[in-house]
């Protein structure tokens, strides 16, 4: 059994370089929409890049595109040095990041709240995607910080749940997420764009956005769906 490749993939890795700055890449993705990105990933044969559909934005207009900062945790009753551990994680969050929580399917605790929002915003964090819960929801909304999650609860994580590690590969639903991948969430949910193909996916998504303008124009002008497809359109 040779595990070298798998070990390299699953361990902590240097982020590969992107052809344009991360910030520009993410800002340009935010101008597109997740369905266009999804169609491009389908062209690449990647059919399982969307997080489970019950992970939804707190408000329909919330949008985030940023670089994955992954966190893994699970239900855990221990408290010893939990706060210090969480502070250390928060202090490692980088600019243009989005915190992505794999909670091992937790259904009880909030992995995110107001103070964590404030601390991460100071470090340039652009949002949080949590396969779990949020609390202090009103305050988080006031801070204008996009959060995608499954539920809201007043249960703090201390004494109920704790982190196992961070900046490691995680899995939410069927989707692998590596630190540095590009995460894009909007009203249609959250999609994970592998870092190595992110720039190519951006260019193709921008093309789709432009091309769909022409398709919609055909519909407005009264062409039937059959005529639209004959002219190269699609739905
Ligand atoms: O401590 C927590 O569980 C999270 C929280 O309330 C906050 O960040 O404000
Ligand atoms: Mg709080």
From TrEMBL:
Gene3D superfamilies: Ribonuclease E inhibitor RraA/RraA-like. Pfam families: RraA-like (PF03737). Signal peptide: none annotated. Its EC number is 4.1.1.112, 4.1.3.17. It is an enzyme of class 4 (lyase). CDD domains: RraA_family. Its cofactor is a divalent metal cation. It catalyses: 4-hydroxy-4-methyl-2-oxoglutarate = 2 pyruvate; oxaloacetate + H(+) = pyruvate + CO2. Catalyzes the aldol cleavage of 4-hydroxy-4-methyl-2-oxoglutarate (HMG) into 2 molecules of pyruvate. Also contains a secondary oxaloacetate (OAA) decarboxylase activity due to the common pyruvate enolate transition state formed following C-C bond cleavage in the retro-aldol and decarboxylation reactions. Belongs to the class II aldolase/RraA-like family. This is Putative 4-hydroxy-4-methyl-2-oxoglutarate aldolase. It comes from Paenibacillus sepulcri.
């Amino acid at each position: 059994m040779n595990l070298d490749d798998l070990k390299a993939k699953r361990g902590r890795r240097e982020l590969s370089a992107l052809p344009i700055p991360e910030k520009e890449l993410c800002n340009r993705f935010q101008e597109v929409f997740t369905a266009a990105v999804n169609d491009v990933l389908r062209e690449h044969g990647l059919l399982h890049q969307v997080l489970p559909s019950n992970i939804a934005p707190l408000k329909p207009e919330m949008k985030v595109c940023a670089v994955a900062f992954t966190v893994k945790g699970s239900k855990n009753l221990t408290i010893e040095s939990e706060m210090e551990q969480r502070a250390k994680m928060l202090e490692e969050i980088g600019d243009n990041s989005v915190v992505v929580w794999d909670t091992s399917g937790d259904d009880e605790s909030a992995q995110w709240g107001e103070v964590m929002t404030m601390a991460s915003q100071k470090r340039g964090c652009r949002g949080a995607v949590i396969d779990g819960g949020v609390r202090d929801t009103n305050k988080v909304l006031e801070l204008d910080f996009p959060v995608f999650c499954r539920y809201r609860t007043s249960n703090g994580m201390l004494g109920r749940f704790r982190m196992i590690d961070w900046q490691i590969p995680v899995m939410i639903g069927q989707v692998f997420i590596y630190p540095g991948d590009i995460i894009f969430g909007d009203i249609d949910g959250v999609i994970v764009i592998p870092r190595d193909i992110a720039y190519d996916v951006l260019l193709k998504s921008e093309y789709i956005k432009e091309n769909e303008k022409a398709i919609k124009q055909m519909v407005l002008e009264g062409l039937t769906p059959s005529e639209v497809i004959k002219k190269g359109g699609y739905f």
